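Exercise (ungraded).
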Amino acid sequence: MSSFDALAFRQFFPFFNNNPDWVYLDTAATSQKPQQVIDAELAFYQRQNSNVHRGAHQLSQHATAAFEAARDKVQQFLNAASRSEIIFTSGTTAAFNQLAFGLMDTVLKPGDRILISALEHHANIVPWQLHCQSHGVQLDVIPLDPQLMPDLDVYQQLLALKPKIVSLTQVSNALGHILPIGSMLQAAKAAGAITIVDGAQGVSWQVPDVQLWPVDFYCFSGHKLYGPTGIGVLYGKQRYLEQLKPLLGGGEMISDVSFQRSSFAALPARLEAGTPNIAGAIGLAAAIDFIRQFDARQINQYKGELLQQFAAGLSQIPGLRPLTRVEQSAGIVSLQLAGEHPNDLAMLLNEQKIAVRAGSHCAMPLFAALQLPGAVRFAFAPYNLPAEVDVTLQALAAATEILR
Ligand SMILES: Cc1ncc(COP(=O)(O)O)c(C=O)c1O
């Protein structure tokens, strides 16, 4: 049994006091926010609000100091070698759009290949597609093995084709499966590829040490890590970030502009055009302070116990077909009810005030490969309680009874 005190952890989140009737199992879409994150954003707007980097006045200097301190916090969190390797974005999707745009023509040339897995979120598919065809770059996909993990034999064969980029999710958002990211990245590096990790789901499972991991770019969103929406991080090794062509042009990212040409500022400003999400960055720093108070291993063990309890209960309900293999999941269980559309099950759970997701979870190619219309996703977090698992199982039993 984990010694993690979930009830004490839950007290930090005002959402639960304000919504005592709800069971929130949609943390993979967005996490709830602790009071200290809400306070940090509020305090910025109430006391400090001013634009960064441009004011001669003291208020702007204070706002700049708070914003840049947030960058330092993220640098420490990921153990990045330098603060200029931390680029603030609006989220993981924005980070991938910057990567796909910025690597074409600079790193990627016609005939080059990019390798992703069949478990990717659309954020690690569509931005590549937007540019691949017009630049003559090929997008290859590692298929699934019978455990619904990347097929590592085929991965080796695809690496032999010498992809320039290997871009993988750390944790599947649709199934919860944790990829063997360490060995996959090592193999990619051995094949000479630039490596990218989508940490949107993974960062709350295991924070990378980006100097130890063979990872060149790592992206995550604040809102899935107890932080605000609209703020995310693109980490990149300096030498690779320097090769990225900026996706957005405008203020603050230049060193000189004439009507003929512009030259760009040094990192990180070069990749942060326009007024950034200052309050969001400060909120993200508060979220990092918050989560670092707790032992990640205890949290993961506790989530594992919730998953085991849920899986044991599911096996007693006829007709349910879990797609997730619980022992390889970071906190998600996705399932199907034979012959029924996932939306119908989710709708009945919603009537019982149980918040889950149904559909293809921004991973349409995955569900096409599985020949399924989608799944119902139950995403557990450390603020969920064993009693909520029981309530959910009872609601599921009642809902399947109605549908069948
Ligand atoms: C694995 C994964 N990648 C990328 C994203 C996109 O994140 P955002 O919507 O915060 O940009 C998500 C969001 O669900 C995700 O789960």
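Further reading is listed at the end of the chapter. For now, observe: Residues 263 and 326 are 51 Å apart (CA to CA). The radius of gyration is 22 Å.
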